[in-house]
Amino acid sequence: MKLIYDVEDKPKLSLLIVYGFQQVLAIMAATIAVPMIVGNGMSTAAALFGAGMGTLTYVLFTRKKSPVFLGSSFAFIGSMVTAFAGAVSMQAGYAGLLIGALFAGLVYVIIALVVRKTGTDWIDRLMPAVVIGPTVSIIGLSLAGSAISNLQTSSATGEPTKIAVLCGLVALIATMLASTYGKKGAKMIPFIIGILSGYILAAIFTAIGNAAGIDSLKIIDFSPITALTANGVSFSTFFSLPEFTFTTAFKGFAEIDGGYIGTIFAAYVPVAFVVFAEHIADHKNISSIIGRDLLKDPGLDRTLLGDGVGSIIGAFFGGCPNTTYGESIGCVAITRNASVATIITAAVECILLSFLSPVVAFISSIPACVMGGVCMALYGFIAVSGLKMVQKVNLDENKNLFVVSAILIAGIGGLSLTFGQVTITSVACALILGIIVNKLLSKDPGTGTQN
Q1: Are 383 and 329 in contact (CB under 8 A)?
Q2: Nearest-5° angle of CA 382, CA 179, CA 73?
Q3: Which residue has the higher pLDDT, 209 or 2?
């Protein structure tokens, strides 16, 4: 793929602000969704701040060579729920979040040290293109259900409506038109154009629905915005300090014991090993997009350290361990903007925006259907990026066909396994199955030797 901005390129400041905000929009919905799902008073603004800090940490460890944004990890939702469920108080639960993130981050640190000692050649042997290509596709395809579900849903009523689908498709079409036929400026911000187009249309329908009392026309839930002025206009209406996780967690450390720490260990550590597989798939994907092997330079050890330490720091502020975001990678692929300066700008904007209540409220009010429409393009590009990796694989060989088939069907079918509090995601299951099938079929049937 010919990039408009390569990794080291730095667009001028005015453009950086806009390009960075586009990345923020791409990762925003998922990043704030995690604390909303976990509940227990977790702050979405703090999660946004934590994502920004985690990303800056990642960029530092990877020496500004990897254009990837870190956001709240969905894989750890079950672990976070366990932290609260097993705690004697809310404060102890918050302390559990920090301890769990530390455990998960240390797993990455330990694996990084092993990789630094052994190199990455074993990764290429274990996960060749025939394995990693369809696995990357699964990362995008496994999110397809979420995109379509959002596309059909009105945020105002929570019900599926045809008007919601219309608004989402307008956002998708506007994104595609801007990216395909727009001038250079429009090509660089297709998601901003798409989201604004869908939002404006949804706002028109919502206004008509409110005036006529027709619920089916109501698409936008404006409550995040109206809540700002519910008690009058004041300084806090515009600026507010996020409720950082550590401020509550420090009060709860005295209430935890060895048994609770063991529970946290069991809830977080196995998940970290699962997410490690997705870490490799994400970095193989972004490597294919930018034409550089990030597992070699800056190296898998550095990307792991950045991800692990970034998760610890992100959770310290926002409570959520972080992970590399496919939405961010998709944004890089579609806009052909791999500038790490853009990622840094997006991280700084996340940190600053977490203090600006009106901006957080506006972004929170973006309808699910509009984000669903835009995410159809984002997730689709991830899937296609994986398929491009398989182009050079000889699919006339039954062995390769079986490997790709096993991964695609397991991933699309949603194969996942749960052991106690640990869930192996469909992406991880598909990858593990692909590795096993590839190894089982790696011997030449004529000679019995390894291929």
Answers
A1: no
A2: 35
A3: 209
Report the alpha-carbon distance of residue 15 to residue 18 in Å, rounded. 5
Residue 421 pLDDT more than 60? no
Q: What angle do CA 387, 393, 399 make, to 5 degrees?
A: 110
Amino acid at 223: S
| 40 Rama sector, left if φ>0, alpha if ψ -120 to 50, beta otherwise | left
What is the per-residue pLDDT for 425?
75
pLDDT tier at 268 (50, 70, 90 boundaries)? confident
| Integer-rounded Cα radius of gyration of the chain | 22
Q: How far apart are CA 55 and CA 322, in angstroms?
A: 9
Whether the predicted model's global pTM rises above the 0.70 cut: yes
How far out from the chain centre does Cα 122 lie? 27
Mean pLDDT of the chain: 89
DSSP secondary-structure letter at 292? S
d(CA 70, CA 211): 41
Place of tokens 């529970």: 263
Average pLDDT over residues 242-268: 91
Composition of the chain by helix, strand, coil, percent to 5: 70, 5, 25
CB-CB contact of 94 with 244 (8 Å): no
